[in-house]
Specification:
There is one protein chain. The radius of gyration is 18 Å and the shape is globular. Helix 1 runs antiparallel to helix 2, helix 5 runs parallel beside helix 6 and helix 6 crosses helix 8. It has nine helices and seven strands, in the order H-H-E-E-H-E-H-E-H-E-H-E-H-E-H-H. Strand 3, helix 4 and strand 4 form a beta-alpha-beta unit. It has one domain. Strands 1-7-6-2-5-3-4 form a seven-stranded mixed β-sheet, with helices on both faces. The chain is an alpha/beta fold and 266 residues long.
Length: 266
């Protein structure tokens, strides 16, 4: 019963914030984006505070860079859970304007989150769209990022890893974004998301496994096809090594077995 009430309270808060945002857009449309940014920060702070109190769970940031992040970069990370997006929003400095490449379906149906993804200028890509449509969407996203000072965030695996194991990195989206604007490449490894990938998983596993974001390297801005592909290959190598290190040194960070993961997503 407590689990149910907590989830209802969180969803209810997001829904109320979303309604307030829609009403504001009707009356003061120019204030929507700034208000949304504040709502997003407050909502994340509230949700993670509830998780910390409820299950003593809080995502962990491990900064291995040894230097301050620049104002602009492209963030490349592996992908394990829908929670990767709010976790990265919450853990990275608030001065950064992170904008994600995400599937189009996330642009509707999730209170406040869907509104943020639609209005803030994220790239919502249809999985059923043609290659031409996808590239056009990424080109427009790259242009918005350049004009409005966003930091693009890309998950090169293209989809969540349902076991936590690292998949292949696809090159097309990465190339399109960096051909539009050459940016330093921030490489991050995320681990623990596959244990809390669904609502049922959150009930069962939240607090039992750590959720870590490890910042690994800030690669110089690549120029040209050869440098771009080399940077992506280096990023995957770094992420693969980081995941192996995390799982060796933290017993609660082992990957999820494929059979168990399949069952948890039903």
């Amino acid at each position: 019963m407590l689990n149910f009430l907590i989830v209802v309270a969180i969803v209810g808060k997001l829904a109320v914030d979303d309604i307030r945002l829609q009403l504001l857009g009707l009356v003061f449309p120019r204030r929507v984006r700034a208000t949304m940014d504040r709502m997003q920060k407050r909502a994340l702070r509230t949700i993670f505070s509830v998780f910390a109190t409820w299950r003593h769970w809080r995502p962990i940031l491990e900064d291995r860079l040894g230097e301050e992040l620049p104002d602009r970069f492209i963030l490349v990370s592996n992908h394990q859970s829908l929670m990767d997006i709010p976790v990265l929003w919450d853990l990275l400095p608030q001065r950064l304007k992170l904008r994600f490449v995400a599937k189009k379906e996330l642009g509707k149906g999730i209170p406040l989150v869907s509104s943020c993804l639609r209005i803030q200028g994220h790239a919502l890509i249809s999985r059923s769209g043609s290659v031409v449509q996808t590239m056009q969407g990424l080109e427009a996203f790259s242009r918005r990022s350049r004009e409005q000072g966003f930091c693009p965030v890309l998950f090169p695996e293209g989809t969540r890893s349902r076991t936590g194991e690292l998949g292949p990195f696809h090159t097309a989206g990465f190339r399109k974004l960096l051909e539009g604007e050459s940016l330093p490449v921030l490489v991050a490894a995320v681990d623990g998301g596959s244990w809390v990938a669904s609502l049922g998983d959150i009930f069962r596993n939240l607090g039992r496994h750590s959720y870590r974001v490890r910042l690994l390297a800030l690669l110089p801005a690549p120029k040209g096809k050869k440098e771009i592909l080399a940077a992506l290959e280096q990023a995957r190598t770094l992420v693969e090594a980081a995941l192996a290190d995390i799982r060796l040194n933290f017993s609660d960070s082992r990957p999820l077995r494929a059979a168990r993961k399949r069952k948890s997503l039903l």
